[in-house]
Structures are given as structure tokens and as C-alpha cells.
Write a structure and sequence with these properties.
The protein is mostly beta strands. Helix content is 13%, strand content 37%. Bound molecules: copper (II) ion.
Length: 118
């Protein structure tokens, strides 16, 4: 007669470990970034702003769009500038002179367009 012993393998500790790493990260001291308008914002925090303006041009084959945007409260004053776009497909169908509403988001000083439409 033989006896087979099965050992069970538990993975519950993986979840616990992940949880503590996440908690550690969020408790790190925050550094700050400065927006073009001189506001200090938490550097690592993802934030977003809503904007509206008129399309000046699309950079063909690239993921940039130039927009003459109105004031973006808390971020920057009205101006014409190039914005990086999260995905090139987002600007398909958009043409110069279009009036658009958009959302820019990200962390640090460089934010990109995460949503755009008329
Ligand atoms: Cu601007």
C-alpha cells in the first residue's frame, strides 16, 4: 500500500504583496510640477482639463494637432499651440478650422489630448 501526499500551493500572499506595494507608492512624498500658468500641481498625480478651440493644423503622419485654444482654467491662458495626441486615430476626420472640445490629461508638465470631438 502506498500513500500519496498532495501539497497545496497557495497564492493568497501574492495579492497581499501587491496591496502593500500599492500602499507604499501612494504614500511617497509628492513632488510638484508647474503648469504653464505658474500653478503648482502634484507631479505624479494624473489630472485633466477641458478645453475648447479651433483647429489650426494637423501634423500629417504624426500625433500632434495645433489648436488655437481658449483659456484652460488652472492650466494655461488662450494661445495657439501643438498638443500631443494619445492616439493618431483620435484625430481622424478632424480638419483645420473645426471647432473642437477636448480633454487633456496626464501627469507632470506635459499633458496630451485624451479626448477630442466637435
Ligand atoms: Cu496652450
Amino acid at each position: 500500500m502506498s500513500l500519496v501526499i498532495l501539497t497545496s500551493c497557495s497564492s493568497e500572499s501574492d495579492t497581499e504583496r501587491l496591496k502593500s506595494v500599492t500602499e507604499l507608492r501612494s504614500s511617497e512624498t509628492e513632488s510638484v510640477a508647474e503648469t504653464p500658468d505658474g500653478n503648482l500641481v502634484p507631479d505624479k498625480e494624473t489630472r485633466s482639463y477641458e478645453g475648447r478651440g479651433k483647429v489650426i493644423r494637423l501634423i500629417a503622419g504624426s500625433t500632434f494637432i495645433e489648436i488655437n485654444h481658449e483659456d484652460i482654467p488652472g492650466y494655461m491662458s488662450a494661445m495657439s499651440m501643438l498638443f500631443p495626441v494619445a492616439d493618431a486615430s483620435m484625430i481622424h476626420g478632424i480638419t483645420p478650422d473645426d471647432s473642437v472640445r477636448f480633454q487633456i490629461s496626464g501627469s507632470g508638465e506635459i499633458l496630451q489630448i485624451s479626448r477630442i470631438g466637435s
